[in-house]
Amino acid sequence: MWLILLLSLLAGCEDDGPVTLTDETQVITWLDDLSIRLSIENNTDSSILSEFEVDIHEEWLESQIDGERKVYYDFKGNGELEKNVFRLDHRSENYYTISYDLKKQVDKYEFIEAVDHGAVEVTIRSEDGDVLANEKVRNLHVYDFDSRTNSSNGFGLLVFILLVMGLGGYFLDKAIRKWMGIPNIDREDLPKTYKRLNLGFNLLTSIITFMITFSSPSDFWFKIKLLILIYLAFQVIIDLYFLRETKEYRVTLITGLVLMLVAVTLSEFFPYMLY
Q: Are 90 and 26 spatial neighbours (Cβ–Cβ below 8 Å)?
């Protein structure tokens, strides 16, 4: 039940139409270009001839574009195409990249904020002009312009933050126990069912945390806070059910609320710190 709840809340559920833009669709940039990597699922049994339309809803970003778009037939920018109609093969994912040069290197956080607020909208139309799929692309990957061998997606920073929060949680746990007079419980004294539930849920949340690092900027902190809330609720429930007399739930509740406060503070002051 918890697995279904987490996956439905954090990953979301999508209704597949005849054509869908998958989660692999994203904006990528070296900060001197704007590229949209399209991953298009054709869910029908027939090939579809389509046209791609890109709308830029941010005046600043639109003013940075220099020249006409270029379209390539894969994610890596191979094979520039000149035609305006593109074939989507049946029952398969189709990959294209739409790329624009920018007039100059732009400010990273201004670019991120524009994309995060829905500046880039992609529409896929049939040959007859019918809308097959439409989406504002907020998934984003920014490359380091000054060092093109490095990615600045912030994964290393996330690992560092998680380690710091883990150590902080450890010392916070010690302080709360001392303040409230609640002794630490030896793992050997914990019920087997409690230990199994705890281990399974910790593994699940670790996997989901890794998956969250690929979220769009606006979704990232929302999902982190939601994950903390779900984890806190689950942990308090099993503490109350299995360890009520030890008052362990009080330590869990205070520690979880402090971690939530830290996440809320970071999201407010550093919304794009991992990008």
A: no
What is the DSSP code (8-state) at residue 187?
G
Residue among 40, 48, 37 nearest 71 (CA): 37
Residues 6+ apart with CB under 8 A from 205: 6, 227, 231
pLDDT tens track, the chain, 275 positions: 555 555 555 555 555 678 999 988 999 999 999 999 999 999 988 999 999 999 999 999 999 999 889 999 887 777 888 777 888 988 888 999 999 999 999 999 899 999 999 999 999 999 888 999 999 999 988 886 554 434 445 566 667 777 887 888 888 988 999 999 999 888 888 999 999 999 999 899 888 887 887 777 878 888 889 999 999 999 999 999 999 889 999 999 999 999 899 889 988 888 887 77
Dist CA 191 CA 169 (whole Å) = 23
DSSP of 196-214, one letter per residue? HHHHHHHHHHHHHHHHHTT
Residue 191's region, left for phi above 0, alpha for psi from -120 to 50, else beta, is beta
| DSSP notation for 218-254 | HHHHHHHHHHHHHHHHHHHHHHHHHHGGGTHHHHHHH
Closest CA to 24 of 96, 108, 80: 96
Distance, C-alpha 237 to centroid of its chain: 28
Q: How far apart are CA 249 and CA 142, in angstroms?
A: 41
CA 180/CA 131 separation, integer angstroms? 61
Q: What is the C-alpha separation between 162 and 154, in angstroms, rounded?
A: 12
The rounded Cα 63 to chain-centroid distance in angstroms is 28
